[in-house]
Amino acid sequence: MSSSDSLARGVPPGEPGTLHARTLSGDLTAPPTPGRTVRFGRGEKPDTDLGVGVDDRWVSRQHGELTYRAGSWWLRNTGQQLVRLPRGRMMHGSSAPIPLPTGYTPLFVKGSGHREHLVELYVADHDDRGPVASRRAETVRPQRWALGEDERLLLVVLGRHYLEYEPDPRPLTYGRAVEQLAYLRPESGWTVRRIEYRVEAVRRRLHGTGFKYPLIHDRPEERPSDNSLLHNLLKGLVESTTLVPPDLNLLDDDLDWPETH
């Protein structure tokens, strides 16, 4: 059903619970009618309402469906391949349906090779005119965190591979970081113990500030390694653009450091 079809039925696109869906192949708008089901996949109408991955045989003809009931749109995977949701959540054909929150939800249908096919979903809330209304609004700036001069240098040294946007980056070891810092700031007296202290201080300061990833141990009896928490710290700082590639200018470009993770 197109947006014009929705309006013809007397249902404004922004009515609470209205579903907007879009893929590379098309888009639709569906009113919040109890029992209404929207199907997406590789197939054609009338079996599929919204095409996705239409040239990819790894995508099922009916790969997923959204049904409106109990005041929500419930998503179910009806295909053979996984569906990936935000925060890495996966849905299999045997997974229980989940309700979509209001607002924007992207999902990805696993295809052939490295292909993933995007399905964009938007559920209107109260006083919401839909995703189009945001086009004229001011851009929301990413949340960035303040870092001291020494902290920034230390984190750039530890997170060089993150700032180079390498796949699956890992922090530099504290021992290697001491070597680089000794060259860059020989008067600062960096040691492994001092690095551990400064990294922990940053983690504790940013914990509870809305940082995207865990920065402290939740359960002492099930403690992840400090390296995992450092990975979370560096990943979050780079994704928030608190640390950016120009920060690599703090390092000496003439240095030929071994690529050690």
Automatic annotation (TrEMBL):
<feature type="region of interest" description="Disordered">
    <location>
        <begin position="1"/>
        <end position="53"/>
    </location>
</feature>
<keyword id="KW-0597">Phosphoprotein</keyword>
<dbReference type="Pfam" id="PF00498">
    <property type="entry name" value="FHA"/>
</dbReference>
<dbReference type="InterPro" id="IPR008984">
    <property type="entry name" value="SMAD_FHA_dom_sf"/>
</dbReference>
<feature type="compositionally biased region" description="Basic and acidic residues">
    <location>
        <begin position="41"/>
        <end position="53"/>
    </location>
</feature>
<protein>
    <submittedName>
        <fullName>FHA domain-containing protein</fullName>
    </submittedName>
</protein>
<dbReference type="InterPro" id="IPR000253">
    <property type="entry name" value="FHA_dom"/>
</dbReference>
<feature type="domain" description="FHA">
    <location>
        <begin position="38"/>
        <end position="90"/>
    </location>
</feature>
